[in-house]
Amino acid sequence: MNWISNERFVSFRNGRMVVLAEIMADTAGDLPDAEDITGRILARGSTALDINTGDRYCLNSSGLWKKQNSASSLGTSTSAIISCTSAGAPVVGDLTEQEEE
Predict the structure, then answer these.
(1) Strands 40-42 and 16-25
(2) Is the dihedral of CA 29, 31, 37, 43 positive or negative?
(3) Rounded distance, CA 52 to CA 40, Å?
(4) pLDDT tens per residue across span 3-51
(5) Residue ranges per domain, the chain?
(6) 58-72, pLDDT tens digit by residue?
């Protein structure tokens, strides 16, 4: 099971909202594909927490969830949206350039 704990609107694409989201999932196997959430498309940089293990993941530009090696640098707050580089290092993101098509 998974759910969105926080999201921020980025743009519209094909009649659906593109959102930068924080996902909570019971296990990593429950992480959704970028277009699997009804009415939404997850933007690259969306983050997820595997509640079972405490592992954090970041959605890359290919739509793949990448496990983050430095969980301590992400902090424990689920109220701040963090975007990630494709290498997996957490960085503060500029939402104005998250999705351009």
Answers:
(1) parallel
(2) negative
(3) 25
(4) 888 999 999 999 999 999 999 999 999 999 999 988 999 999 999 999 9
(5) 2-96
(6) 999 999 999 996 545
